[in-house]
Amino acid sequence: MSALPRAAELGLIACTVCGLVCRNVPGDAQLDGDGVDDAMACPRCASTLRRRKPDSFARTWALLIAAFLMYIPANVLPIMRTASLNDIDDNTIISGVVELWRAGSPNLAVIVFTASIVVPVLKFLALSVLLVSSQRGSGWARLQRAKLYRLVELIGYWSMLDVFVVALLTALVRFSVLSLVEPLPGVIFFGLTVVLTMFASMSFDPRLIWDGKDSDD
Amino acid sequence: MGKAFPEKLLICEHCDTVYRRRVLERGEVARCALCAAELERYHLLSVNAMLALILTAAIVFVQANLWPIVTLGLSGQHSSTTLWGVILAMWREHSQVVSVLVAATLFFFPLLKMSLLGWLLWFARGGRRAPGFVPLMVILHRLGPWTMSEVFVLGALVAIVKAHTYFDVTADPGIYAYAALTLLITIFAGVDLRQLWDEDLEPAA
C-alpha cells in the first residue's frame, strides 16, 4: 500500500474538464471503478465524470494504427512539386530535408527532420510502448513512462511544420510559367497523420500507467 | 449528483493521486509526488494582466492576418501572400483537407480562443461570471492543443530559407506580427485557465 492515496481508494473522482474533486455517492451511479457506464455529471461544469477515459486502449490503438497507415503514403508519396521553365521536381518529406541541408541551412534541416520524422516516429513508438505496458499492468519504469507521455503531448503538434511550409510555398511561388509550387497528395496524408496521432495521444489515459500499482507494492 | 469539495482537495490528472490543497507562494509550483506532473502553480498574472495580454494578442492577430507575410521576387515579378491567401491557395490546388486544417488551427481556433478569453476575463475583472461561463469554459478546455500559430512561424522561417535559393525574399510586416504573437502565446502558455473556475465570481445576472 503506497502512502499516497489515489482517488479510487477514497471514493473520489476528478472532473477531467474543470478539475473539480467530486465524491461519488454509492447508489447514485455505477462508479465502481470498472470504467463502464460511469455516467454522472460534474456539478460545476456539467461534463460527464469518468474514472478513466472511455475505452482508452481500444481508441488509442485504433487511432494510432490509422495514423500509421496514413504515415506510409505521407513518406512515400511526394508532398510538393516545384516546376520551373525546364524542370519539374517532386519532393518527398525526406528529400525536402536533404535539400535544406544542401542549401546551407543544416540547423533548419535538423529542425524539420525532428518535426517531420523524429516526432511522428517517437509518437508511434512511445504510444505503442505505453499501451502495451499499461495493458499488461506492468510496473516497469512507471515514472519514466509518465514523463514520456507528457513529452509526447507537449511536442506532438509541432509535426504540422511541414504542412505549413508546403502551404505557404504554394501560395507564394506563383510566377506562371517561370516557377510554380503545387501541393501533392503526400502532404494531405501527412496532415492526417499529425491530426490522428494528436487524437491518439489525447485518447490515452495516463492514469492507466499507475493502475494496479498497489498490487505490486 | 456528485458532491464537490472545490477548495480542499486536488487530484493529479496524470495518476489520480489525491492531495490536500495548499496556498502557493509566489514562484511555487506544486508537483505530484508520484508521477512528477505539475498540479498547480502560483498565479503570476492577475485577471487584469491576462486581459491586457489577450487584448494585445488580439491586436497583433489582426495585423498578422491582414498584412502580407513575405514577398518573393523573380526577375522583376513579385508575389506575396497573407494567411488567407495560403488557405485559398491550398483549396484551389485540390488540397482541401490541408486548407481546412490551416484555416482551423491558424485562424478559427486562435480567434475563438482569444474571443472566449476576452469575454470571460472582461467579466471576471468586474468580479462576475460572464454569461455562458460554464459552456464557454468547457469549449476553451476542448480547444486544447489545436491552435498552432507558433508552429506556423517556424514554418514561415523554413519556407523563407527554402525560397531564398531561387528568389529574392523580403520579409513583410505580417511575419513580425506573427513573431510577436508567438511571444505572447509563450507568455500565456504558463497560465492555467482552470483558475477561473476557482475565482470567487458572482453568477451572471
From TrEMBL, chain A:
UniProt keyword list: Cell inner membrane, Cell membrane, Membrane, Transmembrane, Transmembrane helix
Transmembrane spans: 60-80, 108-133, 154-177, 183-204
Question: Its principal location?
Answer: membrane
Which Pfam family, any one, appears in the UniProt record? Answer: PqiA
Q: Keyword Cytoplasm: yes or no?
A: no
Q: Name one GO cellular component term.
A: plasma membrane
InterPro entries referenced in this protein's UniProt entry, alphabetically:
PqiA-like, PqiA-PqiB_transport
Protein name, per record? Putative paraquat-inducible protein A
